[in-house]
Design goal:
4 helices; four-stranded mixed sheet; mainly beta
């Protein structure tokens, strides 16, 4: 046998002894941003998917060893506790034209037991739901296990879950605020300073909004005594309070909104005109003195507001008329 043939046989023998591993599993596979925000109690929050970094699909992921990033101790039991979460039934949603009572609303809803988050084994996404309101604030770290045709690899400290309380902008959105003065004598309208709107969370319990209209000194107008009235057929708090009547007390209008967001839908009147989330009110002239109006001051104050609330709980929404004094 010639030397050339011997070399070929030796080369073939060497190749037959080497195992070729199929596919590829990247050593740098992972999230582009390792920090994943979870704002407690919001309806839906999702992380980015894991970047395969050229790994051969399909890749299956597992989340491992979720722990406190400071102490290294296992994450609190709240992460693995089931909570009751109200949801619309499959195929159901709120219809502002027909869902006018709490009974009609509840017929479309069910309560599902859910963990505060889920982990997608195909994409590696973490998705947080309303039950995340129960999670303790803190930073938590976890490992990832990835498996494909190439094999299995563990990626230590692949991601960090930063559990925080929602910011004000996550809870409340002021859409519009304006005001005017109306002359009792002529009916002429004069623009005045827009009210200052604030939203203060009182508790995580219930689903109540206390809507207060106050003068520039913080003195509330009394809706129970008729110091705040509606403006004809224009929308008000009651327009969006579909499920329970608005209660008028000495300092506020109180709405049980049942579920967030509130309002659930914009108001469209019988002509097809959309008012958005607008609310119109009038403070009659006998209860108010307006800085910008001439004396004698026979002018009513007319605030217009529009807002949305995104997280369930009990809140005070205050409308402060900055150039108005309560008589």
């Amino acid at each position: 046998m010639c030397k050339k043939s011997i070399y070929i046989l030796l080369a073939c023998g060497l190749l037959s002894c080497s195992k070729i591993t199929p596919g590829f599993l990247s050593p740098t596979l992972g999230y582009t941003s390792k920090e994943i925000d979870c704002k407690r109690g919001l309806t839906y929050q999702a992380s980015e998917a894991i970047n395969f970094d050229g790994s051969t699909p399909p890749v299956t992921f597992r989340l491992l060893n979720l722990r406190d990033s400071l102490t290294g101790q296992p994450a609190p039991a709240e992460f693995t506790t089931l909570y009751d979460v109200p949801q619309f039934k499959p195929g159901e949603s709120f219809n502002p034209d027909t869902d006018s009572t709490i009974e009609l609303l509840n017929a479309k809803r069910t309560t599902k037991q859910m963990y505060p988050y889920s982990f997608d084994s195909v994409s590696g996404q973490l998705v947080f739901n309303r039950a995340s309101a129960n999670l303790p604030v803190g930073m938590y770290v976890f490992d990832i296990q990835a498996t494909n045709v190439h094999g299995t690899k563990i990626y230590p400290s692949a991601g960090y879950i930063n559990v925080t309380d929602p910011a004000d902008d996550d809870i409340f959105s002021l859409v519009y605020s304006a005001a005017s003065g109306f002359s009792d004598a002529t009916g002429a309208a004069t623009g005045v300073k827009a009210p200052q709107i604030t939203c203060t969370k009182i508790s995580n319990d219930s689903t109540l909004i206390y809507l207060k209209i106050v003068d520039k000194n913080g003195v509330p107008f009394n809706p129970k005594n008729g110091e705040i009235i509606l403006r004809g057929d224009r929308p008000s708090f009651a327009t969006y309070s579909k499920f329970y009547p608005v209660i008028y007390n000495d300092t506020a209008m109180v709405c049980n909104y049942a579920l967030a967001p509130f309002p659930l839908a914009t108001y469209v009147d019988e002509t097809g005109y959309s008012w958005g989330y607008l609310q119109y009110y009038r403070i009659p002239s006998q209860y108010v003195s307006m800085d910008a109006m001439p004396s004698p001051n026979g002018y009513s104050a007319n605030p217009v507001i529009s807002f949305q609330l995104f997280l369930e709980g009990t809140y005070v929404v205050q409308v402060k008329m900055t150039d108005v004094v309560h008589k």
